[in-house]
Design a protein that fits this description.
Order of helices and strands: EEEEHH
Oligomer: single chain
Mean pLDDT: 88
Structural class: alpha+beta
Low-confidence stretches: none
Number of helices: 2
Radius of gyration: 13 Å
Helix content: 10-25%
Strand content: 35-45%
Length: 91
């Protein structure tokens, strides 16, 4: 397995109403094992560790939310994304 490298482009925190689970959403650049860069969207829930969703932004833009086409291993992205978000918040 390779190291996932991410760079946060923009981020926002959503409280998700008055009783929903708050979450962070970010647009980030990521490089794959072939060093191709992709622009992605990540959704990370505050109180629900291991609950991370990741999508390819270009595929979302054309309406592709299909499993197997625009599905990514959130469990592999969670740690690097949380670390990058924490670092971006401190800058």
């Amino acid at each position: 397995m390779f190291e996932i490298k991410v760079k946060i482009v923009s981020q926002a925190h959503h409280r998700n109403g008055i009783s929903g689970a708050p979450f962070d959403v970010c647009i980030f650049d990521y490089t794959d094992d072939k060093f191709h860069w992709k622009r992605m969207v990540g959704v990370l829930f505050d109180d629900l560790k291991d609950h991370t969703a990741v999508f390819d932004l270009a595929k979302l833009a054309i309406g592709d939310i299909t499993f197997g086409s625009n599905s990514w291993r959130g469990d592999e992205f969670e740690k690097p994304l949380r670390e990058a978000l924490a670092e971006a918040t401190n800058d």
